[in-house]
């Protein structure tokens, strides 16, 4: 399938074959997928390249927000029809997101906005208006009926009843419990459209999503993504983190929108950095033999890898997380594909052998 192929069927597509049988000696990893609105198309590109390359098996995925969307579409496609079908469904999903965004997204560029870009105005007037509204009125006032086009897009692509029985991919989706502020990790048997909506619920845009009597907001506030589920209950020891939000920026922001964007990035990266600090400490305990012999089997070594493209992603404003134009989404997809191809070429042989990021330098 060409990366530029566009699938667009009204009914949920049916697989043509059974799921792939992994090779006995294929290296296996866990994926940790960050969220970031439309920027999640970068994660789509990473998955697309991993699937196209075919030499790496994915055991489990821990994901948040847009990463959660990618995760459930991938898992259902892989279960239902193998890697090729997973690629088809991911492209179909993002194409339908683009189509839904033509009317639902607050990011609507007009010729006037294109003219303003020449004067350094990055955000469309529609987004500026939306931003002012959401800082004045709550979603209970602006969206009292709880309209969310994501549900229809998800259910048009994923059969959640079938997904709950998926055993070929371990899913761990993170949402934030509004009342307690704690992370909630949803597993395969708990999957539903509401769970994915909860993981992606921006509190200034949507009412908190209720799942089993509890209310949730976007998981990015407490786990973007959560790493610990991949350590506690996954088989593979390698964790590949797919970054959406830049950790490092070269300049100090001075424009109001740039300041807000940087605050958003720091907030949505903070939980990940804390977990990396804990992993670095545990690794030091193992490396320096600080653990008593009777407890050594209780602490296992994990290998951390990362796909980042901070320079490229730093070019995009916070408003562009609502930009669902097909040209923008495929641009991000291609960035993700290129970053994944580069990582595979450099580190395929490192899987199962060593970490390929310096945790202290990159995260601490």
From TrEMBL:
Pfam families: Patatin (PF01734). Keywords: Hydrolase, Lipid degradation, Lipid metabolism. Residues 1-23 are annotated as: Disordered. A motif (GXGXXG) lies at residues 35-40. Residues 31-231 form the PNPLA domain. A motif (DGA/G) lies at residues 218-220. One of its GO terms (biological process) is lipid catabolic process. GO terms for molecular function: hydrolase activity. PANTHER family: NEUROPATHY TARGET ESTERASE/SWISS CHEESE D.MELANOGASTER, SLR0060 PROTEIN. This is NTE family protein. It comes from Bosea lupini. The lineage of its organism: Bacteria, Pseudomonadati, Pseudomonadota, Alphaproteobacteria, Hyphomicrobiales.
